[in-house]
Amino acid sequence: MAEKNETTHDDQNENEKTQNCNGDDGHDSESESESENQSENTHIDQETDDEDESTSSVEMKRKKKEALLGLRCKVEDAIRGNYLMGGRAGKNQLLAKEREQLEDITLWGVPLLPTKGHAGTDDVLLKFLRAKDLKVSEAFEMLQKTLRWRREYQTDMILEEKLGSHHLENVVCMKSRDRVGRPVCYVKYGAFKDREFYRKIYGTEEKCNKFVRWRIQCMEKCIEEMSFESGGVNSIVQISDLNNSPRQKVKELRYVRKKTMMLLHDNYPELIHKFIIINVPFWYRASHLLLSRFFSPRMKKKFVFAKPSEVTKTLIKFIAPENLPVQYGGLMRENDADFTPAEKASELIIKGKSTGFIEFPVTEAGVTMVWDITVVGWDVSLKEQFIPNDEGSYKILIRNQKKMGESVRNSFYICETGRVVITIHNDTFKKRRVLYRSKAKPTLPIYHSSPCLSS
Questions:
Q1: What mean pLDDT do residues 393-412 have?
Q2: How far lies 99's CA from each of 103, 146, 150, 389, in Å?
């Protein structure tokens, strides 16, 4: 538990802020810092329809219900009539066994035949309807094309294939979840700056296509983390890190990126909640503009861009600091032995040209205090010290760091009661958002190297 000598949020305001993260538009004119955070968190929402503002919610629900009923009927008729995969009703008569197999057809592990009564069928069909603005015929056509593509591409078998080597583990990886529980997939393009590695992955057309297939395999693995039942998490957040990535003139990389994006666009509707592109170089916007000509308006709205100086500020809107890796300004570390994502961070807002204080009380001796601190925007100075309760004991300077440029993890063995005080000075004219957490760990003292001194 921490006490602060600067503007903080009480429990009620924390609850209001959490609601804003889920899409509410609350505003408190008395708290400038809350207003700023609420504005940032309006980007975070549940898996909802992007409804037309000019259309009432009741009318939209009615249209969605009608469209879903229409698509359910089309899918049911197409399965019973043996033309779900193409053709026309009454054509391509199938054997009884083949017809039975068609009735058992699934997509992403969910039965498509509505009368089977699976809880996820409507959720899957709604994704195609949303992708086509509730136009039943277009959604049905898209579903047919997706099913044909999966059959030709043998997507249902892709999880059993060995496509990616250990060299690709640092290119695409699944790490943690966003604020509402969606899996987060990181794609890091910096590895391709190494020419030898680039040739190994993209050296031939065959290798390029194999990499695309591996990316689709990664998407299928993400789908395994989803739930297509009511209230379940049924989409992911993809973060593409362009730090140190090769320039746009690398044609193989452009080809792979375009082909992958189009496959995702055409065959995985509404399964990606947001595409967050970070560390965006100046040339990337033009490249993306050319590619986005092939995207639907709904798809275009899913992209979020962040230049290097705004990476942490952008990602923290979607991902809690406990689940954001330290390299992006969060608090999550690999194989962390001190903290878990369940141990939430507190927040402190420090105004421009002012100083804030964080205190970690120590009520018993013989423990090691461990703390995490990160600052959105950096450019602050930090000092850490231990102040004993005994006035006759010495204050101990733990660390005097002039400028923070990364997340801080520190610890200190305590041999008497007191408090750890963190002093943060903001010398800029802008507010700084400090996120922090701490815990006391019982520890056996190491007398010959103990840093704890007292008089």
A1: 91
A2: 6, 20, 19, 79
